[in-house]
Amino acid sequence: MIKLKSALCLVVGGIALSGCLYAYQRPWRLFESLERYDDIPIPPDGQDPAEFVFARLMYPSLPYAKFEFRGRRDWREGGTSWTEDYPRADRHFITALRRLSRINARGLEQPVNPDDVDDIYNWPWMYTGLTGNWDLTDEQAAKIREFLLRGGFLYADDFWGPDEWHGFEAGMKKIFPNRDIVEVPDEDALFHTVYDLDNRFQILGEWGLRRGPRDGGITPQWLGVRDDQGRLMVAVSFNSDIGDSWEFADLPAYPERFSALGIRIGVNYVMYSMTH
After folding, report:
1. Sheet holding 110-112, edge to edge
2. CB 65 within 8 A of CB 136
3. In terms of pTM, does the model score above 0.85?
4. Among 13, 11, 56, 111, which Cα is nearest to 246's?
């Protein structure tokens, strides 16, 4: 009888623990996009369980942030910098990832608010764009730091020139005050997990086809932040717009070579995060 009671307690305790953990995992939510996308179809299998989920980091913007087109300031409702290219780029990339790899990817992206208790730890791969505009609180920076040190991976993309670099760097210094942002060499595994990407070049956004790189962002840089074992926790594409290469992959006027490289970069970064 004592053993039976002990076993019953373990079962009940396990169910309670599972319920608590599930409660912290936020369900899929759709937010307003900075670019007013309201016609992107939701795939029928969008919320089916999968081994990989494309998560997008939500963040508050600097008071003077560029591209806050509609003057919205409550980043928790969408329509600010973190929703640039969302959700069109996310879903296009997920489709490409499914076709070009054997990764079982969920059909829908997952916006992740670092203030949502421990939800961030449920989504080990995250993308973030326009990070020259982020304005992380100390608490958010600490949560992202813990996420990365636990094995998470963050991909920061689409910021240009010295002013946006300073905004990005200030956020990274909050996350990792004592870790440097370093160049990632061509021979790094990041560029060779699936595709050999030694011949990378600057990827312009759709906007750049008309007027070239913005804010003096002439030279593309491939950067990162490593943990104590040398694993890349943060991958950075500075002076390139990988998000647009996904977003406009189906646009005939957008150069195929940009999308071809941008999608391969994304595939490599996902595979790297799952194998390192």
Report:
1. 110-112, 55-57, 125-129, 153-157, 232-238, 221-226, 182-183
2. no
3. yes
4. 56
Of 56, 61, 66, nearest in space to 106 by CA? 56
Residues 7-35 have pLDDT tens digits of 444 334 443 433 444 446 889 999 999 88
Element (H, E) at 234: strand 232-238
Sign of the torsion formed by the C-alpha atoms of 202, 209, 90 and 258: negative
Asked if residues 262 and 85 have their Cβ atoms less than 8 Å apart, the reply is: no
- Strands 55-57 and 221-226, how do they pair? unpaired
**At a CB cut-off of 8 Å and minimum separation 6, what does 15 contact?**
none
Residues 6+ apart with CB under 8 A from 269: 153, 155, 190, 235
d(CA 25, CA 53): 13
Triad 85, 101, 205: Cα angle to 5°? 25
- How many angstroms separate the Cα of 120 from the Cα of each of 71, 175, 183? 27, 15, 27
Contact 134, 79 (CB under 8 A): no
In DSSP terms, which residues pair with 183 in a beta bridge? 223
Q: Which residues pair with 78 in a beta bridge?
A: 32
Q: Domains along the chain?
A: 49-275 (3.40.50.12140)
**pLDDT for residue 82:** 96
CB atoms within 10 A of CB 26: 16
Distances in whole angstroms, Cα of residue 157 to Cα of each of 21, 57, 187, 244, 260: 31, 12, 21, 10, 17
